[in-house]
Amino acid sequence: MTGLELAQCQLGSQMRLARGEHLFHMGAEAGDELYFVRSGHLKIYQPCGDGVQRIIDFARPGDWLGVDTIGEQFRHASTLALTDCEVDVVQYRHLAELMDEEPYTCDLFSAMLSREIDRQQLAAAILRSAGACQRIVMFLLQRAGPAPQAPMLETHSPLPMSRQDISDYLGLTPATVSRTLSALKRNGWISLGQRGFVVQSRPALERLAAGTPLAIPPQAA
Predict the structure, then answer these.
(1) Sorting pLDDT into bands at 50, 70 and 90, what band is 158?
(2) Lesser CB count within 10 Å: N end or C end of the chain?
């Protein structure tokens, strides 16, 4: 998205968020700001009272935020930095002016919107999955991204969110998430590290994502 990145440099400003700092809060005036995540990871959630959160999604480098409130008055959710972040802030009206002047930018912006829709559809598919293992494995594959050309090129994929955040997002318990991750590691299909993982067998994970059951020994419960 070179054209949009150029627009960010021309039209936007950069801001830094420390871990634990909010980018915006649910119910705040939306304005017309769009946010491009240059580095870091964020949690998008709706506070439901009594400390309960409904986690909508997790944003990472390359994602855009604020697209869902273009033309609306208030933010639909809160966004919290899970790590230190760098975010580009672009006024939508400035981007719209650029699209009027340079039509190719419309195509780039449309492609960005398509990517965001694809991301949201994948997130919805994960949450519709019947089995706990399916949800967890699909979530991991989403975080890992497309398969590399060779298995040995699989890289470390960050998991900066807590087990509680993952379980809230997937509609599971933290114990179920931990047991399933341990089983995947024990089978040699992933390796777990500090706040992240590496895919060791993508075919095995893809079979699980398609519905193949994962046996978890009773002693692991």
Answers:
(1) very high
(2) C
